[in-house]
Design brief:
By secondary structure, the protein is α+β, with helices and mostly antiparallel strands. The chain contains 2 helices and 6 strands, in the order ββββαββα. The protein has helices spanning 58-68, 99-121, and strands at 13-16, 22-28, 31-42, 51-55, 72-82, 85-96. The longest helix is centred in the last third of the chain and has 23 residues, at 99-121.
């Protein structure tokens, strides 16, 4: 998808995993944006949630950077209401790195990322 504003100028690459999860990878300037569905976790939101985007704090960002072994700039979690509980179902990770390298690192370590999110926020 191309936008005149320049916010997204590249077509995403979709990676489908054997366990049914997926990730899309979009290069954007010096960043690579990973969008991935995740096993639902409690959203770190404090408000009502029918559809909400929450920026995860620096501690989680640092821990995921450490897991992936690459510089993570920002992590956003998409939260929706699942059976009355505000739950994170998708994350966007903005990473400093080349798309090929980022895909490999995320694919190798996504299970650890999922576990960290579950341990930190709990299941819905």
């Amino acid at each position: 998808m191309e936008q005149i504003s320049g916010s997204i100028s590249s077509t995403p690459s979709i990676v489908r995993y054997d366990d049914g999860y997926w990730a899309s990878i979009v290069p954007e300037n010096r960043l690579t944006i990973i969008s991935s569905d995740i096993p639902p976790v409690r959203c770190p939101s404090t408000g009502e949630c029918s559809l909400e985007v929450v920026e995860l704090d620096r501690e989680i960002l640092s821990r995921i950077s450490s897991i992936l072994g690459i510089g993570v700039e920002k992590i956003l979690m998409l939260c929706v209401s699942l059976m009355g509980i505000c739950s994170g179902v998708t994350i966007k990770i903005l990473v400093l790195g080349e798309p090929g390298e980022v895909v490999k690192l995320f694919s190798d370590k996504r299970g650890e990322v999922f576990r960290l999110l579950a341990e930190t926020y709990g299941s819905p």
